[in-house]
Amino acid sequence: MTAPEGEVARNLDAVRARIDAAARACGRAPGEVTLVAVSKLQPAALIRAAYAHGQRDFGENYVQELTRKRDELADLADLRWHLIGHLQSNKAKHVAGFVHLAHAIDDARTGAELGRRAVAAGRAVEVLAQVNVGGEAQKSGCEPDALPALLDALAGTPGLALRGLMTVPPHTEDPAGALPYFEALRALRDANGGAARLPALSMGMTHDIEYAVRAGATLVRVGTAIFGARA
Ligand SMILES: *Cc1c(COP(=O)(O)O)cnc(C)c1O
Fold first, then answer.
1. Parts of the chain with a pLDDT under 70
2. What angle (nearest 5°) sits at the alpha carbon of residue 202, between those of residues 183 and 88?
3. Phi/psi zone of residue 135: left (φ > 0), alpha (ψ -120 to 50 degrees), beta?
4. What pLDDT, on the 0 to 100 scale, is given for residue 4?
5. What's residue 54's pLDDT?
6. Strand 200-202 relative to strand 160-166, pairing
7. CB-CB contact of 155 with 112 (8 Å)
8. Does residue 211 contact residue 201 with C-beta atoms inside 8 Å?
9. How far is the CA of 59 from the centre of ligand 1 (A)?
10. Quick one: which of 180, 165, 176 has its CA closest to 209?
11. What pTM does this model have?
12. Beta strands in 79-189 (DSSP E)
């Protein structure tokens, strides 16, 4: 069930407390972890409720839904939109003008199109390379072996600012099952230029925030714990 507007503020506080506790438990500063509130399939009214409670970073999966909500919420000028879903190159033109961070770029061609459109819009789009660390056939993300070439391509694309890596691990009932995949993403970061080149690690959702923070997440993407179950 979708959370009523009043519950969103309480839920946000609870998620922020989870992040802060997980950070302290491993000696990290809570401020190193940005909470991206995943609002896909949730009404704009709940985004407003979260914004009113201080939340500024919101994540959407689908380009059409993202552009619609962006228009509906255009009065919230400092809201930052994150595209966390897979981007098809033919949709890049719809988001290049405004998206703050594209989390799920997994091929150079889409990156090139996004960069070209961003240049045309007079800006740069920050991007993360999505990696399929679990090697699941049905999942988006580049294979770890292909990552060095993808990173070189993205880093060399005008209009893109390469920031780091993102992953969605295979689902496991026990959230601890995600930890090896999160650690694998961090190891890929360390093997491909480290935090100097790739400062951002986007990993962790409602179910496994604590393990992601422990493994070094700088962005966690949380939907259900803030907005309730999706329709
Ligand atoms: C939906 C989604 C999330 C949020 O998942 P919750 O379990 O609701 O927190 C995070 N990341 C991606 C890529 C998603 O598609």
1. 1
2. 120
3. left
4. 82
5. 98
6. parallel
7. no
8. no
9. 9
10. 176
11. 0.97
12. 80-83, 101-105, 125-130, 160-166
Q: What is the pLDDT of residue 1?
A: 62
Residue to mutate, 171, 221, 222, ligand 1, most ligand atoms under 8 Å from C-beta: 221
Q: Distance, CA 223 to ligand 1 centroid (Å)? A: 6
CA distances from residue 102 to 22, 137, 166 in whole angstroms, order as listed: 25, 22, 10
Atom index in ligand 1 nearest the CA of residue 205 equals 9
CA–CA dist 18, 141 (Å, integer): 27
Q: For ligand 1, is residue 99 a contact (CB within 6 Å)?
A: no
Question: What pLDDT does residue 222 have?
Answer: 98
Alpha helix segments (H runs only) across the chain: 5-25, 44-52, 63-72, 92-95, 108-120, 147-155, 179-191, 194-197, 209-215, 224-227
Please return the burial class of 164, using the count of CB atoms within 10 Å of its CB with bins 0-12, 13-18 and 19+: buried
The token duo for 220 is 């966690």
Q: Are 126 and 103 in contact (CB under 8 A)?
A: no
Tokens, residue 228: 């309730």
Task: Compute the distance between CA of residue 231 and CA of residue 229 in angstroms, rounded to an integer.
Answer: 7
- Residue 52, number of CB atoms within 10 A of its CB: 12
Dist. CA 106–CA 181, nearest whole Å: 17
